[in-house]
Amino acid sequence: MKNKEQHRFKVSNKKTLAEAYAIPPRTLKLWLQPIEKEVGAYLGKSFSPKQVATIVKLLGEPENLQLITLH
């Protein structure tokens, strides 16, 4: 499997991120609160690829990584 530096992430919303981590959206919200400053603002109802990479770096690789990466 590729390491995190080799993954190319795509724009993702909170619902997709929650699905990738196999958790409810409410749980994702709680997980994101402590890392909000590192991740940055949730603008346009989505996270940029750079923000998604930061989230994965801080929270760890999700169960369903293919939902947030480019193939």
Give a verbal description of the structure:
By secondary structure, this protein is mainly α.
List keywords for this structure.
71 residues, mainly alpha, 4 helices
Q: Residue-averaged pLDDT, rounded?
A: 91
Summarize the helix and strand pattern as letters: HHHH
Strand residues, percent: under 5%
- Helix fraction by DSSP (H/I, runs of at least 4): 40-55%
Which radius of gyration do the C-alpha atoms yield? 11 Å
Count of helix runs: 4
Shape: globular
Got a strand count? 0
Main sheet characteristics = none
Low-confidence parts lasting 5 or more residues at pLDDT below 50?
none
Based on helices, strands and strand pairing, what is the structural class?
A: mainly alpha
